[in-house]
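Two proteins follow. First one:
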Amino acid sequence: MRVLITNLTLWGLTGTEVYARDLALALTRRGHRVTVFGRGTGPVVRELRRADVAVTDRPRRASDDRPDIIHGHHFMPTLLAVRQWRTVPAIHVCHDHLHRDDRTPLDPRIRRHCGVSRLTVARLVREGAAADATHLALNFVDVMRFRPRTPLPARPRGALVFSNYAHHGSHLPVVMEACRRHGLELDVIGSGVGNTVLLPEERLGSYDIVFAKAKAAIEAMAVGAAVVLCDYAGAGPLVTSDNFDMLRDMNFGFEALNRPLDPAMLLDEIARYDPRDAERVRDRIRVEASLEHAAGVFEQLYRDVIDEKAPEAPMGSAWPLKEEAFLRLYWAWNALPPRWRASLGLRYARAGVRRWLGAD
């Protein structure tokens, strides 16, 4: 199949950028022709191109041939793609239950909506996706990248905060205090502290406890670290073999972060550290959340959608002028490197453009 995967930006190593990269590489290994449609020139783009995966910021240049299926991430590039390829069916995956860029794109060509957690599935239905065409598509990890570490020590020594949202104005000070009280040495990986690591799979095995959520938490579990769910939105439990199923449906994410950030609470979770149980969690995540399994599930979903009869709804309706102008202005804005957007104050200009277009 010829698969077009959309993503809002390709500048860094955010969760959706890594998700798009991993899925594109897995589908390519399975013999499909994959193009990633997004804006940016970051490490994900370089790795994709080294693997002969096409990357473009213009859907009409996405392939010499019409794609067979569009796999959409994010509201704006998904709509740009399906309205460029007016006869191509699509699926859409929602990664965030609140963020504006993860609003639900509604178009008759989008035959399935998937959410990576229960909260994202609820958002999709709330925003208009048909309930019978909306499904839970749980997150995954490339188990060939994130290989098992050596056995954990009886008592933890090193800890890591693994989050792009970690900085001294978010949850980091609380984690630092909890680790100080427990005598743990703490490191931080993430763009929030200016420490983006291109190959986290080479670093995670050095830590006994990792504080993370969502995909970052899954990657840490896959190497065998004990994982305490924690991020700027709140704190959650240590992931164990007993609570694994419940937390998995939550994507080990926001729904699980239901307690306030407090050093004492984190100390209670650290005290539950159990090396043998962390191995059981590792083994389950590597089997149940493997990238290759997820790629096979999507592969079958693509075939099912392609084989369906096209919807009878009109396929070529015109966009409202304001909607089209907003989408294309926002797409141009995302073409700028993040440091340029910050230095030029374009984050504020973005809000002004939205007000001018009446998009809010």
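Second one, unrelated to the first:
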Amino acid sequence: MNNLEMINRLKRMDILITMKSTGTPIEFAEKLSLSVSRFYDILLEMKELGAPIKYSRICRTYFYEKEGGFNINFEWRDQKD
């Protein structure tokens, strides 16, 4: 997997978690075309980056414990002459 594919997968995961529409871990992995073990690896990496991701067995979805999300994009900076 190249870096762009990984960034796009991370963005998709972030959107689904924010919307609280991930489904169970198996369903979430299927939505991302991942094996369950690879899904858990990526989820762990997201948590290591500071994402407060929790799972609700009642709602059957992952969610952010605190409001926030990943922001991966290019930002312009003002250059001083």
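SUMMARY FIELD: Strands lie at 53-56, 61-64. The helical segments are 3-18, 25-31, 36-48.
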